[in-house]
Amino acid sequence: MAAYTILTPALATPGAKLGDYGYEREGLGTLDAEFVEVEPTEEALIAAAGSADVLYAKGMKFSAKLIAALGKCKHIACASVGVDYVDVAAATAKGIPVTNCPDTFIEEVADHAMMLLLSTHRRALEQDRMVREGRWRAGRPQLNLIPRLMGQTLGLIAFGRVARAVAHRAKAFGLHVVAYDPYVDEMMISSHGVQPVSLPELLAISDFISMHVPATPEANGLLKEQHFRAMKPTAIFINTGRGPTVDEGALIRALDEKWIAGAGLDVLEQEPPQQDNPLLQMPHIILSPHNASASARFDPARRRRAGQEMALILTGRWPMSCVNPTVLPGSDLKRWQPYAMDRGPNS
């Protein structure tokens, strides 16, 4: 019998078969641990919860009810950046650290954000369609109305790891970059060659607005109608963060009524979207299926990282990426607080 039991729903990760935990075991090293797969239902997980030393969360919701059933669990591991499928508050109340993988695919998401920015700006899909439909001469007149990219302003809402990588790329294209983040010191933002600004100023001056706010209950619907109305009519909105951080109805109205000029979206409020979602019919939108982080290294890197976090906590050490929003019992290590738009830039 193994020293530790890692409980997980029987759901295969991309490119893997059920029962394949080779990458996680690489992260665990020599630790004697057994992965126990159960039917991917809350009922089955609750029935097995008492024996779990670690809950490996993937592919479904992990509710307060399930977390309450964990008897001796020391850790909830997520092999993803987002942890919105786990009730982190319930885990915190029970003293269970929740970990994620915040820095294993930063470069991929930043590349994807720049791809969406460049493609929407240069009307890539519309230009491609013109060629395929035999409208060769229609392409240049469309682009003749579009300003040069160099010298325009990119506004970053939140300034975490991905946003910083986007800023680095954007400056190479000659963009002026500004950022709003009430939880990041202005001097740190400035050290990246980025101008710290208030949210109203960012909305007013930006030609491109890229959303990077993490998904928390407090962040749901943070960008509302008044924010889209405050943007330039020529502005393009990019979102590679989380769909629920944006009031999608307000975004649809903004695009339909031309409060803004276009959007590049990797994330939506409902995923996958209903086929009657107006965004799917808009020509000035570029969509991708929440795959900005995908690359050949995506699955191995995040799964190894999850195993490493399990090994750290099971051997009594602090993990690399604990996302619990308060001080955990018995710890003096403070964690990030929920993101709030109504706080000032120096809060």
From TrEMBL:
Membership in a protein family: Belongs to the D-isomer specific 2-hydroxyacid dehydrogenase family.
GO MF: glyoxylate reductase (NADPH) activity; hydroxypyruvate reductase [NAD(P)H] activity; NAD binding; transcription corepressor activity
Species this chain originates from: Plastoroseomonas arctica
Keywords: NAD, Oxidoreductase
Domain D-isomer specific 2-hydroxyacid dehydrogenase NAD-binding: 114-292
InterPro entries: CtBP, D-isomer_2-hydroxyacid_DH, D-isomer_DH_NAD-bd, NAD(P)-bd_dom_sf
Protein name: C-terminal binding protein
Gene3D superfamilies listed in its UniProt record: NAD(P)-binding Rossmann-like Domain
GO CC aspect terms: cytosol
